[in-house]
Amino acid sequence: MSTERLRKVEKIIRNITSDFISKELPDEDNVFGIINISEIELSSDYWYVDILVSSFIKQDLLTKTLAKSAYIIQKHIWKKIWLRKSPKVRFRYDDSWETGAEINTVISGIDKEIRNLESKNPE
Q1: How many domains does the structure of the chain reveal?
Q2: Can you give the pLDDT at residue 98?
């Protein structure tokens, strides 16, 4: 399959999934806050689509809750775009923003140590 077609299908799947999450996901108590879909990874054989999601609140429950709705999202995808195979939807938690925050903390610590060394040893 062409890479261009794969990216187009991923974009459509992103739209379908984000519409479902914003309009149909039962979250009356706003348990998760803002849910972010950071990436869609469709396998080249169209068997699986991994949807990377994150939220600021209750991250541990997010993928489990969305996994309960995976079949409904699959049906929405199948209705919107015709493919020979309807990809199986899998939700994965995206912790890249947490990793980025940790890296920033480490870099800030190193920067402070360098400044301290420079102030102790002026040339």
Answers
A1: 1
A2: 67
